[in-house]
What does this fold into?
Amino acid sequence: MDIASTVTYAHPSWWANNGYLVVIQDVRGQGESEGVFKGFNQERADTTETHKWVRELPECNGLLGTFGFSYQGLTQLLAEPGTPPPECLAPAMTGINERDHWCSEGGAYWWHIGISWGLQLAAQKLRKSNNLKGWEEIRESIESKSYLRYGKELLKKYDSKGMAYQWLKASSQGNNQWMVHKPLDSWIKQPILLIGGWWDPHLNGIIEIYKRSIEAGGDPEIHIGPATHLQWWEGSNQLQLEFFNRHLKKSHTLKDKPHINLWNLTNKSWDAKSKAEEIFSTPEQWSAQSNGLACASTKEGKLVSNRIGKGNIILVHDPWRPVPAIGGHLSPTPGEINREQIDTRGDVATFTTDIFNKEKFINGHPIFELEANSNTKGFDLFISLSIIYKYDSSVNQLSTGVCRILGKDAKIKTKRQVILQPIHAVFPKGSQMRISISGSAWPAIAINPGLAEKQCEAPSPNCLITTIFLDLSKSKLKLNHIFDK
It folds into this structure.
């Protein structure tokens, strides 16, 4: 329990000083725990056993709350049927679907995140078995960033049965049989505090847990703030302490509080709502238009409101100099970012609205659709949505998304859909919105080689220069409500 998730949480002593008995338990086979680590499959039984043990401690008053993020965010939701639920739960930055919430998006494996996390687990395993040479080999790959090229082989060498390598294999093979973990209804009906971040890759998982809690008859509280997976906002610990005080201490009365609290990405302030129906978004759709120069000029491509798209764009993806991934929720530098320089590249197509003459509320999942195909058997579409302020040339990236196409279908012109990371933002009068499209986002996702028989990996001689044809006539940018079922 040496780390005790202090990368994001206050040390257990702080909780103890606030009147709580704190038990931090290592995952089986990790840290100082004995046994063999087998991933989420072992957690139901372990959770049930641990809860029974804690409730029987002489220091415990019988009231139990749980907290934890990422892996421990999910483990606290899993238990054997019939296990009494804790009085309250506070899972953060986690998910229940191993494909959509843990390792991939739009058919593309989280290359940087998935491999680096997998190597961290492998290194812990090697340390426990006293394989110092293997540990140092993995550590050197992280420090030199060579894991982006050789990390897959290191996972195969040192932890071939581990979660990360098995997910990578399943993703590469197009496996559609993925585990979706199902928390007990009796558990997610309990008071539950959900914490998510706009730049966290597990955000859709937290939103899914919120919706499932509602469906089970619960009354969950959700906060989505200006946070990456490891960098949270000021006050997040106090938020959790107040939640536990309300539900675990008899001296604290329950007060009506807003159940949805969303950080406005552009206003830099919290918007509190009592229910999802109160979250407003401008009822508007946009389409892309260009006379063919959207890759050569950031001023030529247009994003027009409630009109049809028009034009065609030829986008050339060169694997030797892939478009880098910056900011957002999947890159090695997550968070807010100015992508102005990226947008000036000739292999990035940009489409920008006219200056807004009134305020626009943009809330939900941005979804961009258009017809596209390539001259190879595989291509990627990576899309970002940004805001440009009236008196600032910066292109402030708010959301990104990806769609990977593999096989002979890549050569067929048909509708492609890219679902972006949810956002909550106000576009003030005088600002503009931009959509940027590229054929890569290295190393957030691997390079699509354009060959059905080759896997998506680091740039290599097997990767083809790919020409991507974008038909804008049926292009559409729309918003789905963030909490739609």
Summary: The first helix runs from residue 12 to 17. The mean pLDDT is 94. The domain at 286-480 is CATH 2.60.120.260 (Jelly Rolls). The CA atoms of residues 124 and 130 lie 10 Å apart.
